[in-house]
């Protein structure tokens, strides 16, 4: 057994306890990143490329007809084939935690849509279940058994949140063991059936499961109700005749007390158990070999790796199997040093032998860890790992390297952030406000500076406005930065106002022509006093300009009688004869 340290590029912040590794045709892919996916890799799935003990995460591509696959921590995954002879590999993903600590009850089927020049394009579909649908959970196991030419998924164990009737504000995130029911899932028709077996009395989580043909072995695990790690060893056999399936369970001796262990396969009938915990505050440093035969299982200790002092003194560890007898391990960094990394990673090679491609055994296991800042038991912040088939680490430099420059800290991402000083969105008290919301508050991106997300409800946005902004490409600024954005904008150039002329552009003539005698009479400067009802204003203006006289408007009837000695309503044209 050899232990080597692995360096990680700039995207080291994406790796966190709870990730999973999946193998497709000899290439390993990383799933379960920290936080929600960003623009650089919206799928959240990365090619896990290790060359010369240096790890690079390269974004993976999904087909256009794929459904959205959220990043899930501690899910149950397994390799699925339609039959033992089938060459098409698919992965089943069930349950797990989202970055908002919500539990998923969905089943996703992930397969390869196409592969060109070592670039893999995935297709992900969501499978709807009917019947006895398993509740949302994490820390459980899912395996595939094959019997009489048929295949069936077997789901067991895990933890879930307490029932809604028992959840309080103080214990909102409290979890409990799921009931020890065994679920058979038909992936072809989407039917699920639960079975109660008398041998399974207590709920288990973070156990090790190994599937071989029609048999599943359950080892170890942690019971949260009793806070013990019993040395369990169960054998569950599933028979798939033409009628109803037959499920039976047998308790076997020779089990081991371990939880959150990492399982890797060294050859067709041999597995290695690495890591895990044997007590609440004590890691399990011993490794075991598991050998399978026809209806037999044998567990024995093996040579202990030469653990480094950092691994020996670390309180927690986590990781996942890379196949081919290789395990990827992580431990928290030294928080006492200012420039310390968040985690240090190692690659443990348990065997140098290659595994045949015609494998008939598929394995899965759950591992657990604790956040370095928490003081809760190890099992309260769990991590899942998967043991895949034989893996080669021949990467492809033509993959697009992931750029972490636009990655945000998880504390300021997600839906349940404090987006502004007046934010009142709380995960425990929030209720949908817009018709488009279901179980998460609507958010909108503010383009100020480096950008940040805010709740649409906190910005007092109308639903029509929110839908309009989501469809358009215009930049949005939150209430806190909108004034700054307006001040930085260059004012638009405005055309000078055109003042309308004082005089009418289209003059309406009076229709009368002044004779030379009348013009001569008017040039003498005789003042004329007129009354408005018998002379239009346009004629008055024209008359004053032509005659070069001063026109005085008289409104009083008595004044006009004194000056002219006649009725003011008499036609004014008589004054000029």
Report what the structure shows:
The protein is mainly beta and 577 residues long. It has 2 domains: 2-349, Neuraminidase (6 Propeller); 418-485, Double Stranded RNA Binding Domain (2-Layer Sandwich). It is built from 6 helices and 36 strands. Keywords: Chromatin regulator, DNA recombination, Metal-binding, Nucleus, Zinc, Zinc-finger. Zn(2+) 1 binds at residues 419, 423, 455, 458. Residues 371-380 have a biased composition (Acidic residues). One of its GO terms (cellular component) is DNA recombinase complex.
Structural class: mainly beta
Calculate the terminal CA-CA distance, rounded to whole Å: 132 Å
Helix proportion: under 10%
Q: Summarize the biggest pleated sheet.
A: 8 strands, mixed
Oligomer: single chain
CATH classification, class level of the largest domain: Mainly Beta
> Which CATH architecture of the largest domain is right?
6 Propeller
Q: In what range is the share of β-strand residues?
A: 25-35%
- Residue stretches low in confidence (pLDDT < 50, at least 5 long) are 354-363, 367-413, 526-538, 540-564, 568-577
Average pLDDT figure: 76
| Full CATH superfamily name of the largest domain | Kelch-type beta propeller
Number of domains: 2
Shape: elongated
- Per DSSP E runs of 2 or more residues, the count of β-strands stands at 36
- Number of H- or I-type helical stretches: 6
Mind sketching the topology for me?
Blueprint: E1 2-8, E2 20-24, E3 27-31, E4 45-51, E5 54-59, E6 61-62, E7 76-80, E8 90-94, E9 107-116, E10 119-127, E11 130-131, E12 141-147, E13 150-156, E14 159-161, E15 175-177, E16 181-186, E17 191-196, E18 208-212, E19 215-219, E20 233-239, E21 246-251, E22 262-267, E23 270-274, E24 277-279, E25 282-283, E26 288-293, E27 296-301, H1 309-313, E28 318-323, E29 326-332, E30 343-349, E31 361-369, E32 381-385, E33 443-446, E34 452-455, H2 463-471, H3 482-488, H4 516-522, E35 528-530, H5 537-547, E36 551-553, H6 557-564
Parallel strand pairs: 1-5, 6-10, 11-17, 35-36
Antiparallel strand pairs: 1-30, 2-3, 3-4, 4-5, 7-8, 8-9, 9-10, 12-13, 13-16, 14-15, 16-17, 18-19, 18-31, 19-20, 20-21, 22-23, 23-26, 24-25, 26-27, 28-29, 29-30, 31-32, 33-34
């Amino acid at each position: 057994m050899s232990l080597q340290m692995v360096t990680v590029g700039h995207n080291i912040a994406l790796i966190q306890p709870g990730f999973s590794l999946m193998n497709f045709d000899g290439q390993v892919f990383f799933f379960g990143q920290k936080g929600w996916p960003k623009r650089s890799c919206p799928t959240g799935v990365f090619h896990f490329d290790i060359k010369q003990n240096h790890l690079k995460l390269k974004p993976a591509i999904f087909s256009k007809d794929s459904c959205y696959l959220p990043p899930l921590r501690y899910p149950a995954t397994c390799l699925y084939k339609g039959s033992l002879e089938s060459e098409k590999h698919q992965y089943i993903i069930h349950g797990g935690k989202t970055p908002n600590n919500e539990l998923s009850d969905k089943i996703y089927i992930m397969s390869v849509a196409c592969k060109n020049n070592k670039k893999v394009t995935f297709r992900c579909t969501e499978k709807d279940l009917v019947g006895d649908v398993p509740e949302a959970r994490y820390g459980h196991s899912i395996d595939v058994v094959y019997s009489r030419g048929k295949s069936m998924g077997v789901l067991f164990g895990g933890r879930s949140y307490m029932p809604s009737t028992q959840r309080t504000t103080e214990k909102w995130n409290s979890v409990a063991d799921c009931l020890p029911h065994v679920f058979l899932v038909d992936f072809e028709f989407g039917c699920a059936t639960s079975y109660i077996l008398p041998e399974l009395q207590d709920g288990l989580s973070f156990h090790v499961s190994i599937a071989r043909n029609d048999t599943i072995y359950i080892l170890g695990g942690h019971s949260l109700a009793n806070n013990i790690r019993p040395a369990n060893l169960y054998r569950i056999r599933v028979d798939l005749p033409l009628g109803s399936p037959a499920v039976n369970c047998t308790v076997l001796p020779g089990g081991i007390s371990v939880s959150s262990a990492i399982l890797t396969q060294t050859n067709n009938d041999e597995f290695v158990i690495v890591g895990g915990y044997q007590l609440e505050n004590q890691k399990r440093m011993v490794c075991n070999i598991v050998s399978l035969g026809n209806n037999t299982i044998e567990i024995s200790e093996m040579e202990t790796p030469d653990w480094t002092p950092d691994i020996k003194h670390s309180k927690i560890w986590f990781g996942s199997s890379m196949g081919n007898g290789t395990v990827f391990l992580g431990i928290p960094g030294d928080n006492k040093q200012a420039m310390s990394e968040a985690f240090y990673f190692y690659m443990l090679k348990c065997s140098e032998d290659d595994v045949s491609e015609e494998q008939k055994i598929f394995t899965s296991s759950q591992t657990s860890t604790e956040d370095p800042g928490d003081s809760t038991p190890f099992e309260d912040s769990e991590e899942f790992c998967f043991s895949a088939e034989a893996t080669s680490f021949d990467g492809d430099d033509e993959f697009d390297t992931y750029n972490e420059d636009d990655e945000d800290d998880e504390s300021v991402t997600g839906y349940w952030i404090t987006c502004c000083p007046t934010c009142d969105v709380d995960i425990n008290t929030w209720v949908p406000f817009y018709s488009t919301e279901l179980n998460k508050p609507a958010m909108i991106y503010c383009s100020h500076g480096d950008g940040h997300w805010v709740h649409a409800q906190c910005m007092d946005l109308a639903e029509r406005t929110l839908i309009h902004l989501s469809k358009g490409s215009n930049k949005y600024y939150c209430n806190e930065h909108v004034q700054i954005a307006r001040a930085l904008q260059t004012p638009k150039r405005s055309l000078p106002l055109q003042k309308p002329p004082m005089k009418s552009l289209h003059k309406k003539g009076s229709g009368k022509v002044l004779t030379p005698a009348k013009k001569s009479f008017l040039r003498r400067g005789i003042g004329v006093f007129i009354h408005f009802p018998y002379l239009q204003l346009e004629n008055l203006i024209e008359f004053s300009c032509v005659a070069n006289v001063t026109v005085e408007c008289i409104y009083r009837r008595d004044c006009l009688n004194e000056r002219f000695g006649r009725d003011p309503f008499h036609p004014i044209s008589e004054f000029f004869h």
